[in-house]
């Protein structure tokens, strides 16, 4: 007599025989649809849509006048005249052999070094001061930066009253300590000092603003670690903060140099290049020769020389000075 275990075994065998065997079917191959490449003309159209207006403005207002100035510098042409005589490099030879050129170059160098170097040092000192937690710090920042947004002509006319030897504030302050007011308007050297002071007063706020933004990005943990190691504030500033300000200093050295060499409005408003050409820079000489003397060709030659100087100095800064910058 079969047992329950035998019946269960027979049932399992029957089910196993009856169950169909499953055959693994291979999965259908995956098909990849190639991504459609953008048509080149669409990329150029998008580029022209965004960059076209800026490129057009640069061509019309920068590169075209530059090429025209190069061409005019080879002509003996008076402003407004219908005819011009080609002279080749004659205007350049005339400028380099002119006895007054050395004085103009000297004034330009003194003005540039004083305004760029002095502006960066004073601006950094202001930035360090305004970066501290002081009462009325917001108002102080506004006062320092405000002159930068003012018109150069308005600033120059205002400071003419300040330096007035008879009724000016400087004359009153110097008279209070028993010192006579310098001949700001009559002496070439004092006139140049006066223009440098006014230029620094107007533009030092820009340097302070950029340095202040850079100081606020200096990691505080580095300064705290230096303090824990026993470094004095001066040593921490020299060895930690100044290297971190390298990119900002490099940027300001280029922008302030370009701005200083192209300064015109303050000189025009205060001294008009005098006295005795004591404040005539290369930029102001371009104006004098072109619009006062009417020597458009000669003026274009001076402008081309100034452009070459700016280009060479900028390239030297980017090639050699940038290597010392730690990003």
From TrEMBL:
Gene3D superfamilies: MetI-like (1.10.3720.10). The chain crosses the membrane at residues 44-63, 104-130, 142-162, 190-215, 236-258, 296-316. It is found in: Cell membrane. Keywords: Cell membrane, Membrane, Transmembrane, Transmembrane helix, Transport. One of its GO terms (biological process) is transmembrane transport. GO terms for cellular component: plasma membrane. It is a multi-pass membrane protein. It holds the Pfam family BPD_transp_1. Its main location: membrane. InterPro entries: ABC_transporter_permease, MetI-like, MetI-like_sf. Residues 105-317 form the ABC transmembrane type-1 domain. Belongs to the binding-protein-dependent transport system permease family. This is Sugar ABC transporter permease. It comes from Cryobacterium glaciale.
């Amino acid at each position: 007599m079969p047992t329950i275990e035998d019946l269960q075994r027979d049932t399992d065998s029957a089910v196993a025989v009856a169950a169909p065997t499953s055959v693994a079917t291979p999965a259908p191959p995956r098909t990849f649809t190639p991504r459609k490449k953008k048509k080149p003309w669409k990329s150029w159209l998008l580029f022209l849509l965004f960059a076209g207006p800026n490129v057009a403005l640069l061509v019309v207002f920068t590169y075209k006048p530059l090429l025209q100035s190069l061409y005019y510098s080879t002509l003996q042409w008076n402003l407004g005249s219908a005819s011009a005589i080609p002279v080749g490099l004659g205007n350049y030879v005339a400028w380099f052999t002119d006895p007054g050129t050395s004085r103009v170059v000297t004034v330009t160098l003194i003005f540039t070094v004083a305004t760029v170097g002095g502006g960066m040092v004073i601006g950094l000192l202001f930035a360090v001061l305004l970066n501290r937690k002081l009462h009325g710090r917001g108002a102080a920042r506004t006062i320092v930066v405000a002159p930068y947004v003012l018109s150069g002509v308005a600033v120059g006319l205002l400071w003419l009253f300040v330096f007035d030897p008879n009724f000016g504030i400087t004359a009153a302050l110097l008279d209070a300590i028993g010192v006579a007011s310098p001949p700001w308007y009559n002496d070439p050297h004092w006139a140049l000092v006066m223009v440098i002071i006014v230029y620094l007063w107007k533009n030092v706020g820009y340097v302070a603003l950029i340095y202040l933004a850079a100081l606020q990005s200096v990691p505080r943990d580095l300064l705290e670690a230096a303090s824990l190691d026993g470094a004095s504030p001066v040593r921490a500033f020299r060895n930690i903060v100044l290297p971190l300000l390298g990119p900002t200093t490099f940027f300001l050295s280029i922008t302030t140099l370009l701005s200083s060499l192209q300064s015109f409005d303050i000189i025009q408003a205060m001294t008009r290049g005098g006295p005795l050409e004591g404040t005539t820079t290369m930029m102001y000489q371009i104006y004098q020769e072109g619009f006062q003397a009417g020597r458009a060709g000669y003026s274009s030659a001076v402008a081309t020389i100034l452009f070459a100087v700016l280009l060479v100095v900028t390239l030297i800064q980017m090639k050699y000075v940038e290597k010392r910058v730690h990003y």
